[in-house]
Every structure is written in structure tokens, then in C-alpha cells.
Amino acid sequence: MWRREEGTEVRRGAVLPEQAPFAILSESQVPRVPTEWAPHAHPRHELVWVRGGTLTSRAADRIFTVSEGYGLWMPAGTVHGGRATAGAEFHDAFFAPERTPFEALEPVAIVMTPLLASLLAHLSRSDLEAAARSRAEAVVFDVLRPAEHQFALQLPGDPRIDPIAEALLDDPGDGRSLEEWARELGTSDRTVTRAFRHTTGLSFAQWRQLLRAHQALILLSAGHDVTTVSELLGYAQPSSFIAAFRRVMGTTPGAFFGGAGDDPGHVRNPVPGVQNP
Question: Strand pairing of 108-111 and 152-154?
Fold first, then answer.
């Protein structure tokens, strides 16, 4: 995925009990340092979400960035790895497949409404009576819905252009042009363009813009101001970054993160809330 932050703690995936008397197991934690979960899979469906930070997850050839207000649903058996920013309040819930009416054959973004988040927090209690737990689980299934905006980055998986993807994941601010990349790889502009279109459905410029939007969510959630983020991502001016973010997300960074504004000099605090783009 992205370049690993210094001081990152690498963990194994959660170990679940083989048998559980209820459909949903819910828990939370607050990693004090950047935390990464090595690739793993669960026998249960998993829903993960964060507050005050971001979560990045890779499943097969796609990277998902989960910001506050959203969750990521991983179907049972899906091999995935993840990474949470330091200090993010990390939540996950596990669903017994045979008792879960919600169906998704691949990872999908979920809108974490206040009701859904509150219900899952309620289900994390160990003192709930069976009848109360059953009622809460039923409401969870009623309100669990995919988000309209599925924010995933498709990786090329093509040896002709994989070096480009790897370099940009390591440094999203890498400003080399399509022509420069073609010369470095000893191929033609047309070959690079066709390879990106065929594997990702996007042009090189569109794919890089989407990748930078993913990284922008991580940086803005960590409290970086718009000017710093625009410089780190290779934009000449903050206004160029804001315009690019809006093309991808449908709104400006300030509006996406709850109206904190797009003043380039404004230093952001961890995100209090997110609007559905």
C-alpha cells in the first residue's frame, strides 16, 4: 500500500471464537501509534470504521480509504490488510454469515450513520440480555446500507505500468509526466495510456488524481493544512489541489470534512464528522 510510517506497529488479524451465541461481535480500540494489520481473513463478515483518523485497507488489487462517517464491509473469507493512523478510534464488528441478511460479494463502503454506530457500540456491551441483543441486531440489519460513493483505488496489476503505480504509492507527489514515465520504462506514451485504461478504466492523469485524493484524506484527517497537503501531493498551488479534490470527491476538502473551510493556512484538527459525497 502506502509507504509505511515510522514507528508503525504490525499486528495479526483479530482471533475470533469458533462459536458465538449471537450474530454480531463488536469491539473498539485506540492505537497510540500507526498500526498495521498483516494480510488475513476472517470466517465472519467484518465491518470496520474509525473516528478521528483514517483506515486504509487493501483487498486483492484494490485499496480502500475509510474516513470518518464511513465504514468498510469485508465479506467473510476476504484476504485483506489494513492500516490505521495513530490515535484513531478504531471500531470493528463481526457478523455471522448464516445469520446476516445483508449480502455483498466484495468489499463495499458503508455509511456509518449515528444510529448504526450507536447500535454497534450498544452491542459491544457484555451485559446485554439475549432479547435486547436480538432486538438491536435486527435494527442493525435494517439500517445497514452501502454508500452511494464507493471510494476505491484500482491497482493496475500490469507489469508494463506497475512500476509507475508502485512509485506513486511510495510518493504521491511524484510529478513525472506520462511522457517521462514512458521514456524511463522504455515504452511508448500510447502503451502506457492503453495499459492504464485497460486495467483501471482511467487515464494515467485520472488515476494519479484519484490516488492523490486517497492520500489527501489521510493527510487532512491527521491535521495537515491544505497548503501542506497540496505541496506533499505535488500541486503547484493549493487552489489546484482543492479543484482536483473536488473533481474526484464532488466537494471541497473543507465541505467534505464538516465545513472546516478551505483556507490554505488553516491547520485542521482531527475530523469531527464527514458528509456523504
Answer: unpaired
